[in-house]
Amino acid sequence: MLQVSESQVRLGLSAPDKTEAIRIAGRAMVDSGLIEPSYIDSMLGREAVSGTYLGSGIAIPHGLPEARDLVRRTGVVVVQFPQGVDWGGGEPARLVVGIAAKSDEHIAVLQRLTGVLGDPAEAARLGSTGDPCAIMAVLNGEAPAVPVSEPVAAPIDGDSIDVTAPSPHGLHARPATALVEVAKRFRAEIAVRHGGATANAKSLISLLRLGASGGQPLTVTASGEDAAAALQAIRAAFEAGLDEPVTAAAPAKEAAPRTVPADLDYDGRVIAGISASPGVSTGPVWKFQREELTVAETAPDPEAQHRRLDQALAAAAADLRNLYEEFWKKAGAAKAAIFKAHQELLDDPEMVAEAHALIGQGKSAGWAWRAVYEERAGTLAQLADPLLAGRAADLSDVGRRVLRLLAVVTESVAALPDHPVILLAEDLEPSDTAKLDPAKVLGLCTAGGGATSHTAIIARSLDIPAVVAAGPSVLDLENGRAAILDGDGGVLVADPSERDRGRAAEARIKVGERREAERLDRYKPAITTDGRRVEVAANISDPAEAVQAVEAGGEGVGLMRTEFLFLQRDLPPDEEEQFAAYQTMVRAMNGLPIILRTLDIGGDKNVPYLRMPAEGNPFLGVRGIRLCFEREDLFRTQLRAMLRASAEGPVRIMYPMIAAPAELERAKAITEAVRRELDVPPVELGIMIEVPSAVMMADRLAREVSFFSIGTNDLTQYVLAMDRLHPVLAPQADGLHPAVLRMVERTVDAARRAGIWVGACGGVAGDPAGAVLLSGLGVAELSVAIPAVPSVKARLRAIAMADAERTAREALDCADAAEVRALVRHRFADAGGVS
Known about the structure:
Radius of gyration: 29 Å
Shape: globular
Strand order of the largest sheet: 10-19-18-12-15-16-17-11
Strand content: 15-25%
Number of helices: 29
Number of strands: 28
Largest sheet: 8 strands, mixed
């Protein structure tokens, strides 16, 4: 077990600032034989990406993951600064623990530090002691730490399984998060035991405090009516590795703070940071102001405070659900999943219980909640994982969301001016960024934050240039001051010269010239070099997007998600409201076809008026056409509105989640009855191909419809038995897996024999490689997100269909999606970025 020796403890030192303190700690690590000297630069780089101050006067500087080869051996050094060093959080650091982590041996030391954090008096003692043995005793486990490091949950009686902490780094941030998400699917009480400590499997912080290293044995115990199922799911999750992250978007590479690159050559004042989202913008800066929240420490009526906290938690949870739905429509499910993660953080049972316990001691609801979430955020920030700092920021975001409902707001958020601006902020919470209007925000520049944060991911998804970790000097710039934000170079340039402005304009042109070429040609059909045409349509979710689809070059709407009319409301939309919406969209298409998909809502959506019971697996429950049959009144009303709108232009109606011919027969019979009531002409009817049974029965189904549309997202998860948002399996749920492609081939073959056409409207259709392979397999229409329409059309114009067909045939014989992607990348290396 890792031990701290007296030579690794340096007492009574001083430093003028954080940078020098880190250098002192780094030199001590070099002297102790832990690291190469160049690792110190990586420690400074880590600090720029995510602060390492934990709280209670303790900081834990360490290097970036890519610098692990500079670690000679795993270990820590402790440097004491009795006078304190400003670490940027308003509280001085007195105990600086430098970490060199080549393996996971240091986790036990970090676990003991967690205990010190829970006792400010103990932390103060260690920060001023003149006895190195006092520090060694705590970090080596020779002296009791503090109550917080005792077993964190009570053991429970029940059935148990033995598992092993995932290698190489143990039960750290990502695998612990994955375990929590699995455990929360079950009602059973679930505990994880490691050594003498027990953790609540539904509490992220509780699991992290176990400090379980890679390969160490764990015992999972469950008690309750679904305990057996819970243990089975948890065993499967451990066997799958637990620690695969869900990648919402490719994060920008973390980088160390640096001097301004010479090739940028700006005349104005250059503030260097880290590139978080590409692009270059010019305009005035504007400082973002967040409200100040004030709470009283005590309150006279504990029962009233308990109610206030419960109400605030419920309201915040509802707000997060709404934010998820809104951002899902704006940027897609992968990006919106960030706010589902926020719901998990908000629903931590131990955090809520501890807040209620503080209320029972006479504290106000606001004070209790703030104390708990700030302590948890500090605990999360200590772990040596580049994504965990983002989790700490997310927890602060969630905590403030609840606190706003409990506190007195003494300063409201400053409204943005009427003209577009470059927004400056100390840091931005993910929900702040998600609500930004790209039309009013030219770019983002934050003093703190990191390129791997959720905020940076959302900024990229909204196509807003962003620079993070630029330091506090950016906040000294007054509102209205002219600047250039260079998201590619990772700098903000204040008071740019005319030459600077010209260079920025040139960079924007260079970066956007390919996009502009695609935009100019967006109305050209997607005809391959050997004369074969593929239609490219758009997926839309509301009436305003119909106009955008046409303007983007869409040759129709391949999927209109009607769910937007039914979500976030207390009563369902009536026929007239739906008719008005559909009529608006049909007219906007100006003669181009539009496919209206009937209601597809399942148990994963919160729609109160549907009174749908909670389902253990909503994706295998009442959703799609099954819901339409359960609520035939809603189905008939929707069909009436759709059929009435068909008088305005070419409308096609599509049924979701058809699994068997009997379902299609029933849906068509209801539709025909409604059509006869209205006495309107027939419309083309089609179905989504989303489940394996529909593929296997495609020959029968094709006789009864005018077209198929393959929903590759759902088809992938059903074929591979992997939830595409699963915390462990999602990265493997790739729609270019050969098994999925074989399903596409079988569907197209059945459609050809019946004389109908096949489209695709899932995410794979807009994927560079996916567009090529689906076309090569015979899919006649690709329906993609609106921004992707011009690029997909351009990509298809750059290839020969014969090459696409040959590549698709070879892809069917590949072993997995990675091999498929490599094949396409090699075959079309010169075809405009196909990968």
